[in-house]
Design goal:
Strands 1-2-3-7-6-5-4 form a seven-stranded antiparallel β-sheet. With 197 residues, the chain is an alpha+beta fold. It is globular. The longest helix has 23 residues.
C-alpha cells in the first residue's frame, strides 16, 4: 500500500497533516479495517491534557509510557508520544480520516491549553465513588436516571452530562459543585458537560 498524506487542519497549532501508513483487516470487527497513521508532530507533551478532554470512562492512559487509548466513536484509538496513531473498526480509509480530524482538533486545543500553562489531572484515579459523593444524592430522577449512582456511571462513560443534574444548579448546592471542581478541575468539568461557570 502506498502511503497517503493529507493536510487536515491547515492552521493547526500543533498538528496539521496526517499520513496513512498502513491498512489491515480489523481483528475485532469483520469487514472493517484498522489503520496506522502518523501525525506531523510529536504529541507527547499534550497527551496528559488530551486525556482530560474525554470522559474518564473512555480513557486508558498509561502514564509510564505516556500512551493514551481512547474508546470513542465506537472504536479504539491509541495515541503515542511520537505522533503515531492506531485506530480500529473503520468502514474505510475516508472514515478513518474523518475520525482523525476530530482527534487532531482536540490535540490542537490541548496544545493551546498547554501553552497557556494548563496541567492535567490523573483521570485514571477518578472513580464513581469520588464523583457520587459530590452529587446531591437526592435520586430525584430529573437527569433521566433512576439514581445518582446510575447518573455517575453514565457520566464517567460520556453518556450523560453534568448539566443534566438540575439540583447542582441550585444556589445551595455550591458546596457540591466545588467538590466536583476539586476532583475534576475546570477542563474535565467542561468535558463532562458543565456549563454552570
Amino acid at each position: 500500500m502506498e502511503e497517503i498524506k493529507k493536510e487536515i487542519i491547515p492552521d493547526g497549532a500543533l498538528v496539521r497533516e496526517v499520513t496513512l501508513k498502513q491498512v489491515k483487516p480489523c481483528i475485532a470487527s469483520e469487514g472493517k479495517i484498522r489503520v496506522l497513521m502518523e501525525l506531523d508532530s510529536e504529541i507527547g507533551k499534550v497527551i496528559p491534557l488530551l486525556a482530560n478532554m474525554y470522559p474518564p470512562g473512555a480513557v486508558n492512559y498509561v502514564k509510564k509510557k505516556n500512551i493514551l487509548t481512547l474508546t470513542i466513536y465506537d472504536r479504539l484509538i491509541s495515541l503515542y508520544p511520537s505522533g503515531k496513531v492506531s485506530m480500529n473498526k473503520n468502514h474505510d480509509v475516508e472514515e478513518a480520516f474523518e475520525i482523525i480530524k476530530r482527534v487532531m482538533e482536540k490535540i490542537n486545543r490541548a496544545y493551546l491549553a498547554y501553552q497557556d500553562g494548563a496541567r492535567a489531572r490523573d483521570v485514571d484515579k477518578i472513580g464513581p465513588m469520588d464523583l457520587h459523593q459530590c452529587l446531591p444524592g437526592t435520586n430525584c430522577g430529573e437527569c433521566g436516571e433512576s439514581t445518582c449512582m446510575a447518573f455517575t456511571m453514565k457520566l464517567l462513560n460520556g453518556e450523560q452530562e453534568l448539566d443534566s443534574c438540575q439540583p447542582l444548579k441550585e444556589p445551595w448546592m455550591q458546596e457540591k459543585v466545588q467538590c466536583l471542581e476539586k476532583i475534576l478541575g475546570q477542563q474535565l468539568m467542561e468535558t463532562l458537560g458543565w456549563s454552570g461557570y
